[in-house]
Every structure is written in C-alpha cells, then in structure tokens.
Amino acid sequence: MQSLEQQDVLQRLAESAARLSYNAHWQPTQCGDSQMRIARDGRWYHQGGEIRRAALVQLFSRLLRREGEQYFLVTPVEKLSIAVDDAPFVSIDVAVQGEGRQQQVYVTTNLQDTVLVCAQHPLWVELDPLTQEPSPYVSIGDNLAVLLQRSDFYQLVNCAEEAVVDGQRALGVWSQGEFYSLGAL
After folding, report:
1. What residue spans of the chain are helical by DSSP H?
2. Which of 24, 56, 76, 179 is the most exposed place for a label (fewest CB within 10 A)?
3. How far apart are CA 62 and CA 54, in angstroms?
4. Can you tell me the distance from the alpha carbon of 35 to that of 120, in angstroms, rounded to the nearest whole number?
C-alpha cells in the first residue's frame, strides 16, 4: 500500500510527463523572434518586462523546444526564437526518498513539474572553467534542462556518497540504481 506522500509524488510525476509532452514534430514555415528571454533564475521576460502571470509562463513553457544551442517557441504555425540565459527551468525543491542504491531523487521545477532523476532524466554537473563553480542540471527530456539552485545542490551533497567513477574518486548520489557524480574528490 502506498502512502499519501508517495501517491502525491506519483500523481505529480504523471501530470508533469503529460504537460511536458507535446508534438515535437511540428515544423512551421513562419519563423521569427519572440522578443522573449528566460533569465538564469527562471523568470520570463517579454520586451524587457517580466511576465508575471504564471498561467502565461506555463503556456509558453509547453511550446519550448531546443535545437542545438538555440531555443524556440513552436506552435503548429510559427517558430519563434527565445533567448535563454542558462537553462529554461530552475529547481524549487529536491526530495530524496530511501537510501543507498535504492534511493530516489525527485526534482520539482519553478513551473511545478516534478521529475525523477533516472536514466531518462539524468543529473550532471558542469564546472565553470574560470571559477570552478559547479552548475548542476537535470534533464527533463527533449534536450531541455533544469538548473538546480544552490540550496537544492547542497541538499544533494548532504546525502551524497563516495564512489569510484572512471578510475577517479567522486562524490555523488544514487537514484533509481544509477550513480550521478556531483564532483571529483
């Protein structure tokens, strides 16, 4: 029997999967610039002004597609470029259930989508070449990612374990039986 918390997580996962799936095969002929930007903190802007209506941001996020290094808002009739400072989504919560290899890591985005870190939604960390500051990400599919905010990254570090990855000691977390490195030791 599942607890209410587990049922809530499963319901959020199902809703997020449904919301994030759209027709990636749309190839509209009308192209242009949306004059929109997604800041590193996850806020959306149009012509320099912040879009404050959450429902509007939710709607636009359903149309987001990444091709190579460029992002677009794609509908059946038009494809508009959109500037993205880092990743289009940021984390607002990380939940860890279980322990060791059997634990599961869940990430909730600023748009209330929840993904389970797994082979389909891997976690990785990129280091800034100048500052060596880590930027952790989780894939949400279709070449899109969630940037984990610092507090969520530290929460993962608190439950991290040491392992040997490619012959090098690393600190990382387990989720769905996979080890995800947070950084070399």
Report:
1. 4-20, 54-61, 150-158
2. 76
3. 13
4. 32
User: What's the CA gap between 156 and 166, in Å, rounded?
Assistant: 21
Q: What distance in Å separates the CA atoms of residue 137 and residue 86, rounded to the nearest whole number?
A: 10
103: Cα separation from own chain's centroid = 19
Q: How far apart are CA 172 and CA 164, in angstroms?
A: 10
Q: How many domains does the chain have?
A: 2
In a shared domain, residues 65 and 101: no
In tens, the pLDDT along 120-136 reads 999 999 999 999 899 99
Asked if 19 contacts 62 with a C-beta cutoff of 8 angstroms, the reply is: yes
Would you list the DSSP string of 25-77?
T---SEEEEEEEEE-TTS-EEETTEE---HHHHHHHHTTEEEETTEEEEE-SS
Q: Are 168 and 95 in the same domain?
A: yes
Q: Which domain holds residue 13?
A: 4-84
> pLDDT at residue 105 above 50?
yes
Stated pTM of the model: 0.83
**69 shares a domain with 16:** yes
157 & 124 share domain: yes
Same domain, 131 and 66: no
| Beta-bridge partner residues of 135 | 126
Locus of tokens 């990636």: 24
Structure tokens at 77: 């009739």
